[in-house]
Design brief:
Elements: H1 3-6, E1 14-21, H2 25-36, E2 45-52, E3 56-63, H3 66-90, H4 98-103
Antiparallel strand pairs: 1-3, 2-3
Length: 108
C-alpha cells in the first residue's frame, strides 16, 4: 500500500486524533522516540505520530473498520502508559511533585 492510498479517506473511513500533553519538550521527545519504533502491524490501520507545540504528542489513526481502530488505539495507549510509567520511575525529574515521590516512599 502506498502513502497516497493511506491518505484516501474512502480506504480508511474511521479515524481518531489524540493529543497527549507532556510536562516538557524533553519528555515529549523521549516518549516520541520510544513510541515511533513500533510500526503499526496491520495494513488495515494507518498511524501518524508527531510532536507539536514542543510538548504535545499528536497521534492520527485511520482504519478500515471501527473495530480495527479500537484495537489499534487500545494497544497504542497501553504502550503510552508503559512509556510514562518507565519515565516516571527511572528518569530523575520527570513528574517532579511531592505526591509522586511520597507515594513511592522516597523521602522529600
Amino acid at each position: 500500500m502506498t502513502d497516497n492510498e493511506i491518505d484516501k479517506p474512502e480506504l480508511f473511513p474511521y479515524s481518531l486524533c489524540l493529543r497527549i500533553p507532556l510536562p516538557s519538550s524533553r519528555l515529549a521527545a523521549t516518549a516520541f522516540g520510544a513510541l515511533k519504533v513500533d510500526a503499526e502491524l496491520s495494513p488495515l490501520v494507518s498511524r501518524r505520530l508527531s510532536v507539536v507545540d514542543d510538548s504535545v504528542l499528536l497521534v492520527d489513526y485511520s482504519a478500515t473498520t471501527n473495530r480495527m481502530l479500537r484495537v489499534a488505539v487500545n494497544s497504542f495507549l497501553d504502550n503510552v502508559k508503559l512509556v510514562l510509567d518507565v519515565m516516571e520511575h527511572l528518569d530523575v525529574d520527570v513528574f517532579s511533585s511531592s505526591s509522586s515521590s511520597s507515594s513511592r516512599g522516597i523521602p522529600l
